[in-house]
Amino acid sequence: MEDMIIIRPPVEANSLLVGVTEGCWWNQCRFCGVYINQLTGEIIQKYRIRPIERVFKELEILKQRYGDFISTLFMAGGEALSAPTDHLLKILHKINELFPHLKRISCYAKNLDILRKSDEELRQLHEAGLTICYMGLESGSRRILKMMKKGTTPENMIKAGKKLMKAGIQLSVYIILGLGGVEYSEEHAIETANVLNQMNPTIFRFRTLNIMPTSELWKDIQEGKFEIVSPYGILKEQLTIFKHLNDSVTSYVFNDHVSNYDSFEAKLPDEREFIIRYLEARLRDPATKRLRHKGLLHM
Ligand code: SF4
After folding, report:
1. Higher pLDDT, 192 or 33
2. How many C-beta atoms lie closer than 10 Å to residue 286's C-beta?
3. Is residue 161 part of a domain?
4. Reported pTM
5. Residue 24 Cβ contacting ligand 1 at under 6 Å
6. Into how many domains does the chain fold?
7. N or C: which end of the chain has fewer CB within 10 A?
């Protein structure tokens, strides 16, 4: 996989990484210049489904190297679920044959790729061992999804999330704090809470918007068309989200990304009030106003 750009959720840091797809078939989200330089059009990594023989060969090598010391495996690639179901099932069966003691097999999944699969296909993937998918919700606001060229709608996100969970696969969604900029900060928080209320994912996680120099959003900022939300504003967005969640949301929440200005985890709805009180205290603390944007150059 030496030729492959590997992006993985922080929680998969100790997992075995097996490349299933490369690149991204969409490549248009304005905040993402991972696989294409959106400013020059240069392709950094082309989208493709990796040949099955190559995946099998890498799995054999990994088996020799790590034996049975592995308990979790991440099927890498920005769009693993875009591969045909038969292809994924063959890979999952091979994984199970070589690593029979895994506790978790996971991958990224775009909402449109989930919607393209039938309930039966998703059920087969679950039965073959796919435990959890990480889906980028990013925002629950129709306007912000459109503005960021996410290529989908809040309705699709909700439908895809529910469909996946109905098949028995756990759903972990990512929310990008600050994605609406200063102008749509409140709308971003309220509409995201609305989607979470309807979706009730197994898990949701936060990360904070950082601007990649290869993204269109980078140019927008240079041209003064997008104003970055301050760390104080980011914590306020989080508070607004928790205040607008209702009791039907029973998700686990992880605020564990390096880009965030705080770190916590909670189980809803029981710990929602506690998180609200905690974030209110953070916002009252004068030191919070002095926090500076981290300015990371990756997502
Ligand atoms: S955020 Fe995901 S779907 Fe959007 S361009 Fe980047 S890799 Fe593709």
Report:
1. 192
2. 6
3. yes
4. 0.95
5. yes
6. 1
7. N
